[in-house]
Write a structure and sequence with these properties.
heterodimer, A: 405 residues, alpha+beta, Gyrase A, domain 2, Alpha-Beta Plaits, Elongation Factor Tu (Ef-tu), domain 3, 3 domains, 9 helices, 19 strands, globular, B: alpha/beta, FAD/NAD(P)-binding domain, 7-stranded mixed beta sheet
Amino acid sequence: MKSNSDMTEAYIDEQLKVTHFHPRSSKFNVRDAWGLWNGFKFADYYYDVDFEYFCVRNSCGTYDICPMQKYYITGADAEAMLNRMVTRDISKLKIGRVTYLCWCTDDGRMIDDGTVFKLGPDSYMLTSGSPCIAWFKKGAFGFADVKITDMSDKIAALAFQGPTTCEVLKKMGLDGIETLNPFNFRHFSLNGDSDKKLMVSRTGFTGDLGYELWIAPEFALELWDALYQAGEDYLIHPYGEFATGMLRLEAGFILPGLEFNEALKTVRFQHDQTPFELNLGWLVDFKKPHFNGRTALLKEKEHGPEFTLVKLDIEGNKCAEESYLYNNKKLDKHIGYITSTIWSPVVKANIALAMVQTKYLKGDIWAEIYYTKEMRPHLKVAKCTLRDKPFWAPARTRAKPPLPI
Amino acid sequence: MKKYDAIIIGAGHNGLTNGAYLAKAGLNVLVVEKNAYIGGAAVSREIQKGWTYSSCSYMSSMLRQTIHRDLNLTKHGLVLVPFHGLVNYGNNGEALLDYSNEGVAYNHLRKHSPHDADSMFRFQADLTRYAQLIRKTLMRTPPDPTSFKPRDIKELLWMAKQFWSLGEKELYEYMRFFTTSAEEFLDDYFENDLIKATMATPGIIGTALGVYSPGSAYILLHHVMGDMDGNVGAWGLARGGMGAISNAIAGAFKEHGGEIRTNAGVDKILVENGKAVGVVLENGDELYANVVVSNLDAKRTFTKCMDKKDLPPGIYEKAKNFKIRGSSGKVNIALSGLPKFINLPDNRFVNRGSQSFVGSIDTMERAYDCWKHGRFSDDPFIETVIPSAWDPTVAPPGKHWMSCFVQYCPPVLSDGGWTPEKRDAFGKTVIDKIERYSPGFKDLIVHMEIRTPVEIENEVGLTEGNIFQGELTIDQLFFNRPFPGYAQYRMPIKNMYMCGASTHPGGGVSAACGANAAREILIDLKKPNTVPEDSVYDE
């Protein structure tokens, strides 16, 4: 039996891993507000959620995406294999381009979403929030020349988002960064050293102007320092999971565990979702050769999805946390449920994503909201308005080149 | 000649809000503005190239969220950013820091006084209770307590219900609160002088009262009853300066078909047969309308823009005696770098927010003594903010600007009128004081805009440079604002209305006065109401 003082040593392998940026980012975490992502210690927030949220909407912030899964998929059959696995047609993807996509089971239920980078002729990088190597290895069966390499620990990655990001990267010495267009990536040298290759993609999960920076782990801290030095005058600050949750909801982006249940982790029949239900029909390409889930999805397309994910603007300012949705104010017919909701500080609106039975979308939608005032429960029935467009979509996000601050 | 449904005098944020709601109801609305630019006291101006000053008001908290949302001001370019970290300096350089993270803030307060750190919870609860009550009235028209109209009686009953819901004991406390001084009110909670002085500062800002003057407790509340996204009492910056608020409202106004004419100062409001029929511009142009709405302060409206013979007896005197005393100045300073302040930890949560040079309760009272004797304070209370440390759009990268709100500064000096030399001396007093807490500060100065009450009155039009368009004392609040009997936005002349901060709920960039006035005008014109109910009732 070890003494208490030795306990840390005894459990050292069982503790959460820390990311390549941890020596720097942990200094900001004055509240020790750590959560968990894929076995990594991961900041829920650093100091104040609103502060971090506004860094992204007003100036710039960094979000540590080291725990995100990254796989190299290479070989002559890489394209064919990927195209078989995902619902989008990636055969048209050009080198230097990134695309957002998803992959499904044969029943058309969504396993996960992610991005694919075309690095070279037979070389791709696939990223996803949860590990999916087992599934892709299954999918590679039968393809002669395809290799899947887990790069998750071998690439340090940092999302860098907000209206001043282009200015800061310019100041950091990334010449020509302003010509990098949305969903493109390019290689730069860190601190002018061509041995320190820095890959930059104009991608992100905030709906704002932003980039993702990819570098070998040994240069991670040097990248952090260069970025924070250049960003000093632009209020650069790390933001955590909670701020990301707000930012992505304003942009209308989905998260596993909220909007969808990963199909391979779903116990109950059809408690997972299809791309059509998630309003991701645009990711499904029936014109390309056969892919996983095609038959089931084709059938669903004909009949229409039972549920549809929608954006709601809800009256008042009480968040409809886990609320049921109804067809009228009297709450006669239960027609759906809220998946995530926030008060949007930038739009000044009570916004939500919700799953609603498709056949009821044409009628009224009312939310049954329970909230408390100093512990006493209250009920409010609030009218919901459908929104087609993302709640936050400034012109700068898509502008080529990015607009001046 | 074209006749408008409504002409609004003054393109400040309340005038534009009023216009937006009238235009939304389908009216043909013109806003006339004497300056070449719109915004009134919510304005962004590039006086030094590369720097954008919020020349007058500099922070936002009062703006009604309901109006922001209803007029879709975000679509029209408005983003409000909360800022964090308030530093309050005592006379010996001791720094009281306000962190936005509750746990961190508590630990810091304990360093100054464990007693006060504890007491702060009770103070915040009490203040929140008072603020909640007032917040509910912001977007309601005050009832006339002498009227027997069903609407007034209903509204009075509603108010009585709100008051009684406080409970008997709190009702007495509330009555006391309205009439007591900030210092006496705070005495019940705090023992540390710097904490007390810090909490007292909102009680004097913009008013010609001191921390010991009865009535200053309410003004304290007026400054903390706003909110940022439900955080009551929190303040933020408008991205692009305060003009972004006026510009966004103007965007909504134009979207609904409204028209704005700048360089069009009003000389007189035209009255025929006891009815307002239009305005005469300074250039002699006559413009006609069914309704004339003044966004100017009450004193200016009735004593400068109207013929005395057009007014019912007594109104001119009421307006002349309306309490609208100038008490503050503003210094806007462009800086070549971020100033460093003494006795601060090197962390961004406090070293780039707002700095208040509070001194002590007595320092503030002595500053007030100077005002009473017709001098600007030799050791003034200054509240500074560095908007550029938060907003990347208002100064070149790495450069900054600082807004200094200075109290006290009288509109008339005892040794004669203001001169450019005296104005510069006033500015020097301010930067001398800041230099004491930020050695090297003066070397960073690129440009200064010094504004005494005289400049504020001449440029913005606020009488005596009073930022609230009239003191916020109980004799001039609610159904007494601007005058008893005229608190429902209708003025003594038929078809004439007021929509500025001289009306309920008073000063601050709230847009509530403009919206409330619009509701009354639409009732009179028998048009559908376009003004939303305040979502504050969810609280």
